[in-house]
Amino acid sequence: MKSKLTLVLFMIVSIAPWISFTSCLDDKPKTPTTEQQQKYQQNSVVIPEFNGNSAFEFCKKQVDFGPRVPNTKEHDACKAWLLETLTNFADTVITQNTIQTVYNKKWNLTNIVAQFNPHAENRVMLCAHWDSRPRSDEDSMKANFDKGIPGANDGASGVGVLLELARLLHSQKPDIGVDLVLFDGEDIGYSTDGDNFCIGSKYFAKNLPVPKPRYAILLDLVGDKEAQFLVEQTSMQSAFAVVDKVWALGKLYGKGEFVLQQGGAITDDHIPLIEAGIPTIDIIDMELVGNRSSNPRRRYWHTQYDTMENISPVTLSSVGTVLTHLLFNNPIVI
């Protein structure tokens, strides 16, 4: 998942919406007002309850296959399970296969799209990557360098949330169309080579197998038990209104994970979508990237310690609940 060299601190953001947005930032979380509660509870639709424990089990199931590195039997087995699971839930499932050459090696990649209300004109896209990094290049033990990472948070957490959403949408659909997209080949690149990350999403963006949505939301590193989702810079520039609503819902329904604070800019799967003309935001625990946390437990990015011990059903529930309320309560914000 993306080179740490691409993480930059906010300095000056020239766009007016960001200036307006940051003027209300505060170091202390605010309790949602009655007016805010009413604003997001006006819809008479009964919103289904997102189950964080179920999302956790979907996450664990992926990790149990082993590292989902492309061209491996673990990757193939997980792909078969993902397709079977999504076929049981979705109206339509599309696979997008491609062979991409990176570092003089051919990589067999598969993007997966699960559609709900496939004929609806207004659509929202939710995404995550399902592959595992083929090397543990941030691991303290050099012997682990060529081992694929377990990818509990970096990969499986976002997919786990989307699979639980798929289960909910199977039973109750919103008025809009929803496309759940699982990108392959996100984490192939070396840390100093940003061009060879996000291979699957780049192919997807150039060869869209579905109509463009109104906007997209990417999930990455969304399962840590002490997650902090700061506002990612490119997301603000691409889809200010989506960021505004998601973080407002996060304040209402999260457990403090959605922090209304300036973050940095990340190279991730949202970038190819933005370049293809799809407004996209990235919900990501940015402090993990580059292992910059002051908490030793949270320094497991791109190592063999990216395991289920770091994942919390509570965090998964917060993210999933925010997305569920977004989909069922006035989702067309742009």
Strand count, sense and barrel status of the largest sheet are: 6 strands, mixed
CATH architecture: 3-Layer(aba) Sandwich
Order of helices and strands: EHHHHEEEHEHEEHHEEHEH
Name the overall outline: globular
CATH topology: Aminopeptidase
Point out poorly predicted stretches: 3-20, 22-34
**Share of β-strand residues:** 15-25%
Strand pairing plus helix content: what structural class? alpha/beta
Q: Which percent range fits the helix content? A: 25-40%
| CATH structural class | Alpha Beta
Total domains: 1
DSSP, total strands: 10
Return Rg in Å. Answer: 18 Å
Overview of the structural elements:
The chain has one domain: Zn peptidases (Aminopeptidase, 3-Layer(aba) Sandwich). The model is unreliable at 3-20 and 22-34 (pLDDT under 50). The protein is 34% helix and 18% strand. The longest helix has 20 residues, at 152-171. Helix 3 crosses helix 10. With 334 residues, the chain is α/β, with parallel strands linked by helices. The protein has helices at residues 16-22, 34-39, 52-64, 73-89, 152-171, 199-206, 233-238, 240-253, 270-275, 313-328, and strands spanning 8-9, 92-102, 105-116, 123-129, 177-183, 215-220, 229-231, 258-262, 264-265, 280-284.
